[in-house]
Structures are given as structure tokens and as C-alpha cells.
Amino acid sequence: MDINQTIDVIVPCYNVERALDRCIQSLITQNYPKDKYHCFFINDASTDQTSKILESYKNHSELSIITHDVNKGLSATRNTGVNAGSADVICFLDGDMEVQHNWLKLFCSYLNQKNVSAVMGDNILPENSKCDEFENYYFSNLRGPRQFADGERMPAKYLLFGNTAVSRKIISEVGNFDESFKAYGGEDTDLAFRICMKYPESFLFSKKIYSIHYHPRTLDSFLTSMNSYGKNNLPLLLKKYPQFKRELAGDWIRSFKGYLIFNPVLRLFINIISSFISSYYLTRYKIVDTVISGARSKGNIKKSKKS
User: Mapping DSSP to helix (H, G, I), strand (E, B) and coil, where does residue 89 land?
Assistant: First the structure.
């Protein structure tokens, strides 16, 4: 393992008071050489105690604090961190996550493998957490990249940047996060597709590089976010990357098979069944249906007809 690589850790922070201390402590106690990594915490105009917590760490040499005067969103916040640093490797971590002490070393060991452009770690629930319908789905081994073995290649559509490392050289080649993605979701996929087109089959997933995710959510709140994604950012992705239509589930939006599977009648049936039975697949249907409903909204249909 090459521990001569310099690393920038980019941590976007927006109202993450519930876990920020844990996040900072886990990063400043890494067993990676102290002169080889630096953490950039970007406060995106938080309205809770995030600013106060960050201020209490201002004298730590391992980190820098950057504050946005107004909320700019996740893409812009990550870009602020990317532009502030200059290290060989960029690690992204969400501000409500805690990592193990060898997190950076593990990332380096995977990045040193041949033809690897990015490595994505897993995220897990805090110990002794009680799982509800949403968390049983979200942390399921059936979901997303968890279906792959540790160290296995994964498709670009699964790459998220909440717990991920990538070479700065590659970011320089393909560009930063697209700040036109203002609403929830899509900015990760956009960057992943740009990397994939230049470096295909170069993404690895690791279950060993896990973060503990302190972000309690309900299914209803997540459905609201995913509907926003379907309405706002999924159409942007489909327009930019028509070659990835199937990966984005764009072939289900206005096709015969899409209306056959995702419609009000079946939606009602699934909701009735799920009130008696908890199932990964029932929850997954609700989430996909919500995304597709957002993409089918009147505004998007009008745009589609004009184009």
C-alpha cells in the first residue's frame, strides 16, 4: 500500500449537529500519516448547531473550515472542498457519518489496484438501532452495490459520493460536480457517468470501508425526496445521457410496460398489501413508483413533447 499519496477529505455539512462530533473525531484520529491528509469541512449555511461545533475544532491542524453565506446545495458544497485542496486523492464523506480509524488506508489499498478510478464504501446503521420499513430497505444486502462481493466491480449507476475515494487527476479530467443539479439526487450519477465514459468498468465497491450513518429518515420523507428527484433531476440526466436510459430506468417512464406496472391501481394494491406485510420488494416498488410519478409530472410531459 502506497501511503505516500496525499489525500483531501471533503465533508459537506448542512444541519448535521446530530453526528458532526463523531464524524470529526473519526477523521482526526486516522492512522494515516498526519502530514499526508487534510480535511475540509464545508458548512453550507447550516441553521442548527453545526457552525458552533465546527468552530470548536478550528485550531486542529488536520482540518479547515469553510463557510457558505447562503445555502448552495450539495454539488456546490463539494466543489468548494475540491477546489480548496490539491492532494492526489479526494475522499468524500457526508457530515453525518463516522468512519473507522483505518478508513484512509483501506481506500488507498483499493485505489492502488489496476484500472480502478473510484472506490465506494458501504454504510451501516448505528449499533442497537431499531429498523423500520424504510431502513430495512435502505440497508438491505439486496440494495444497490451490496449485491456485489467486496472488491468487485460495480456499474456506474450505483456510485454515490457519500463515502467514496477518487483520484484528483480523474476529477480534473472530467470536471467537478454539475451545480445545475439543485434539487435532491442525480449529481452523483452525473459525475459517475462522466468518469465511466472515460474509464469504463473502473468502479469498486468495498464492504470493509464502511461508515456509520446517523441519518434517521422515514419512508414518507424519502419518498418525497425521490419524487423531487424524478421530477427535477432525472429528466436532466436522461437528456444529458440518452445512452444510459436503461440504467436510469428511463425506459419505464412512458412506455407500455411502464404504465402496466406503475399505475394508480397497482399502487393502491401495493399500499394495501404493505400495510400488512413488510417486504424489501414492496418498499422498492413504492420508491421506484414515486420516482416515475415525478418524471411523469405535467411539466415534464410538456417538456418532452416540445423536445
Answer: strand
The H or E element spanning position 212 is strand 203-213
Amino acid at residue number 57: Y
307 pLDDT more than 70 = no
Residue 44, judged by CB atoms within 10 A of its CB (0-12, 13-18, 19+), counts as: buried
Q: Is 123 exposed, middle or buried (0-12, 13-18, 19+ CB in 10 A)?
A: buried
Which cell numbers hold the place of 99? Answer: 468512519
Estimate to the nearest angstrom the gap between the alpha carbon of 19 and the chain centroid.
17
In tens, the pLDDT along 18-48 reads 999 999 999 999 999 999 999 999 999 999 9
Range(s) within the chain of domains with CATH label 3.90.550.10? 7-213
Pairing state between β 163-167 and 118-124: antiparallel
Q: State the pTM of this model.
A: 0.92
Report the side by side order of strands in the sheet with 97-99: 63-67, 37-43, 7-13, 89-93, 163-167, 118-124, 203-213, 97-99
CATH superfamily of 7-213: Spore Coat Polysaccharide Biosynthesis Protein SpsA; Chain A (3.90.550.10)
Q: What is the CA radius of gyration of the chain?
A: 20
